[in-house]
Amino acid sequence: MNTLAAIPLQAQPGGDFSFFVPMIAIFLIFYLLLIRPQQKRQKEHEAELAAIQRGDSVVTSGGIHGKVTGVTDDVLTVEIAALKGERVRVKVDRARVDRVIKAKEGEDS
After folding, report:
1. Shared-domain flag, residues 42 and 61
2. What average pLDDT does this structure show over 59-67?
3. Which residues 6+ apart lie within 8 Å of 38 measured at CB?
4. CB-based contacts of 109, cutoff 8 Å, min separation 6
5. pLDDT value of position 89
6. Over the stretch 8-24, which tens digit does the pLDDT of each residue have?
7. Which residues pair with 58 in a beta bridge?
8. Which of 52, 57, 61, 77 has the fewest CB atoms below 10 angstroms from its CB?
9. How big, in percent rounded to 5, are the helix, strand and coil portions of the chain?
């Protein structure tokens, strides 16, 4: 007969708590290094999108560069080219803007 099988297993004191300490430390590291900076970047980007005005230059997530000529709640009208004296304008969802380049103070809108 195996003598090790006959010995009942006893829980070590503090065994449950020692399991949770590394898990809490891992979560804390993930929060400080990944989650919190991403939330901060997202908040700044949303504020930047909300502040878009006529005359600002924008870059869409598709890579189109243009100048904002019209602004509504969710849609921006962006002028992307001028061909033979006619302006080419597209409507872009505000959420699809990747970067905003503010208009210079001396420029007319």
Report:
1. no
2. 95
3. none
4. 53, 54, 55, 103
5. 95
6. 556 555 557 788 899 99
7. 66, 100
8. 61
9. 40, 30, 30
